Amino acid sequence: MSSRIYLSSPHMGTLERGYVDDAFASNWIAPLGPHVDAFQEEFARCVGTPHALALSSGTAALHLALQLVGVGPGDDVLVSTLTFSASVNPIRYLGACPVFIDSERTSWNMDPALLEEELAMRARLGRLPRAVVVVHLYGQSADLDPLMAACDRYGVPVVEDAAEALGSTYKGRTPGTVGRVGIYSFNGNKILTTSGGGMLVSADGELVQHALKLATQARDTAPHYQHSEVGYNYRMSNVLAAIGRGQLHVLEDRVAARRANHAFYAEAFRDLPGIQFMPEAPWGRHTRWLTTLTIDPEAFGADREAVRVALERENIEARPVWKPMHLQPVFANFERRRGSVAEDLFRHGLCLPSGSNLTRQELERVVEVVRAVPRKQGLRTAG
Ligand SMILES: *Cc1c(COP(=O)(O)O)cnc(C)c1O
Fold it and tell me: 109 CB less than 6 Å from ligand 1?
C-alpha cells in the first residue's frame, strides 16, 4: 500500500534545528528563556501587534483571554458554532455559557447580521454577553468590520480565535490583532508548529502583563512565593520557542505552498459538477490552511462520506468540515441562533490533504481517487 497522505503534517524549515541546538548549548531547557522572549517579539512584529505572550497551547491562550476580558461563572459568551471544540471548552472552564451563532456563506465564519440581531435583542432584555469569540476558520478571516462595529455598539469585547488563520489578512490587517485579545495555535497540524504551543496578543499591555502573571502560577512580586490569585502553568518552553522562531521565517513560503495546493485541486476538479470550494472572501488573503470543499451529491454522483471513505481506503486522510458545536452532545443544553448554514457545510463539506510539504505525486493521488468516486458509486448502484 502507498504511504499515508496526511491532512496537514508538520513542515520544518532550515533554521529550527540551529535555534534548538542553541537552547541545548546554553542549557535554557526551561519554560522561559531568551528564545521565548525573541519569539514573542518576532511574532508580534510579524502579525502587527505591540504585545505577544507565548503559551503552552492555543486553548490555554483562549482560557486566559476570556478570563482577562472578565468572563466568569454564569456569563453568556457568543461564539461561532462552526468551529473546533477548543474555541468553546475554555468558556466552560470559566463556568460561563456558550451561545452558538451561525455562519454566513462568504467566509463560513460568524454571520455579522445575525450577531447584530442577537446583540440588539439582548440589549433590550438587559442580557448582553460578557464577550464574543470570533473564529477565523480554515485560514480565512471572518468579516471583522461589521462584527467589531456590532460589538463596539454594545460595548462587548471581542476575543479572536485565529488559531487557524495565521498568515491570512483582513483589509491589510492580521486577524487576531483586531479585537481586544487574539489567540493563535502552533499545534502539530497548524500552518506553523512548535509541536504544541500558542500565542496571546493584545494592544493592551496591562492585559498581556496580567496574562503573563496568571500563566506563571500568578506569583506576586516578592522574593518569597506569594500569591493573591489562582494561577496556571501555561508558559511555552524555551526549546519549543526555538522551533517557533525558525518556523516564523518560512510563514510566507507555507502560505504560498498551501495556496498552490488549493489552486492545483481547483484546476483538477474544474470540470466536475457538484464540487464547490470554500470561497475566498473579497476582504483579504485566505491561506488555504486546509483546502475545503462541499459536494452536492445529486450533481456529483456521490456524497461527501463516499469520497472520504474512498480516500481512506487509499490511505489518504480527509476529514469532514467541523461538526457544529450546537450539535455536540457536550454542548446540547446551550442556546443557539440559527445553525442551518453550519449544518449544511458539515453535511456536505470535506477537508482535503493540505500540508505545505505535499508532493505533486501525492496531490495527483488525491485527485485521481476523488475523480473516480462517482463512477464507482454508479457501478455499485447499477449492480
Ligand atoms: C487548533 C485550534 C485551537 C486550539 O489550539 P491548541 O493549540 O491545539 O490548543 C483553537 N481553536 C481552533 C479553531 C483551532 O483550530
Answer: no
